[in-house]
Amino acid sequence: MLVQYRLNTVSLTRSAFCLRLLAAAAMQAALAATHVYAAAPAANATPTKTAQPVTDWCPALTARLPKVSVADCRNAQLKPTGVNSLNGFPVLFRDMPADARHPGAIRVLLLGGIHGDEQTASSIVFKWMELLQRPGAAEFNWRVAPVVNPDGLLAVKAKRVNARGIDLNRNFPTPNWEKEAPAYWARVTRKDPRRFPGKKPVSEPESRWVYDTIEHYKPDVIISVHAPFGVLDFDGPTDPPTRFGRLVYNRVGIYPGSLGNYSGIHKDIPVVTIELPHALTMPSDAEVQRIWTDMQKWIRQHIATPLKTAGKS
Prior knowledge:
Elements: H1 2-32, H2 58-62, H3 70-76, E1 79-84, E2 90-96, E3 107-112, H4 119-132, E4 141-145, H5 150-154, H6 177-187, H7 205-217, E5 221-226, E6 232-235, E7 243-244, E8 247-248, H8 259-266, E9 271-275, H9 285-302
Parallel strand pairs: 3-4, 3-5, 5-9
Antiparallel strand pairs: 1-2, 2-4, 6-9, 7-8
Helix pairs in contact: 3-4
C-alpha cells in the first residue's frame, strides 16, 4: 500500500507539473502577439516596432469562446485600446459609427466578458458585431469591447476575477465605496474570493479603461453582457426593458462597486445588464438575433438623442 501511495503521489506530481507547463505555454502563446504593447506609448512617441495585426490575438481568444471562429474574430477588426491587462494582454475594442442616414446618433457602449468565466457574454458580442457590419445596420454609434477581462478568460481555468483576483464589476467608484464595498464583501458574501472588490476603486487597468471610456466617450446607454442568470437587469433614469428575446426583466440587485450602480444610479447613464442563460452554451442563432433586434428597438424608443448625460464631464 505504501508503494502504491508513493507511485500515485509521483503520478499526481507529474500531472500537476505537466498542467503548469501547458498553462505557461498557453499564456506565452496568448501574449506572444502583445509584447509590443507592454506599455501604452505616449501620444507623440515614435513607434520602435510595427504593431502586429489584430489577428494575432484571435487564436488565443477564440480557443476559449463558444461558436466564435478565428475568422469571426478577425472580421471583427478589433484594435488595442492602449490599455493592457495585468498579464500584458491588450483590452481590445472597435468603434462602429452610425451610417450617414443617422447624424448625431445615440452613442452605445457595448461590453462583454467583464467576468472571464462567462464566455458566452463575449461570444454573443462577436455575433452582434457581425450583424453591425451588414449594410445599413448601423443606426447608432457603437463602441464595442467583447473581452474586457482577457486574463480571466485566458486563465488555466477561466475565472470571474482578473489576474489580481479582483471582481471588476465590484471595482467601480460608487459613492462611499471605501466603506461599503469591503463591508458588503465581508458581511454578505462572507469574503467570497470571486467577488473581492479590491482595496480601492478603479484599481485595475480593465475597470479603469471602462471608467475612462465612460468619462471621455460619454455613452448615452451602456449594454453589459453577463451569464448565467437568464434575465435582464437595469439601472438608470428611463423605463427598463421588459423583454429581449426570451430574457425578461427581473431585478438582480444593486451592489457597491458595480457598473450598474456607478453608471446607472450615480452617473444617470442607463445600464442594461443582459444575463444570458448559460456561461458556456450559446443561445440559438435565432435567439441571438431576437435579443439584438429587441435591444435596438428599446434603445430607439427609450434613449433620447442626445441624452441629458451626454454633456456631462
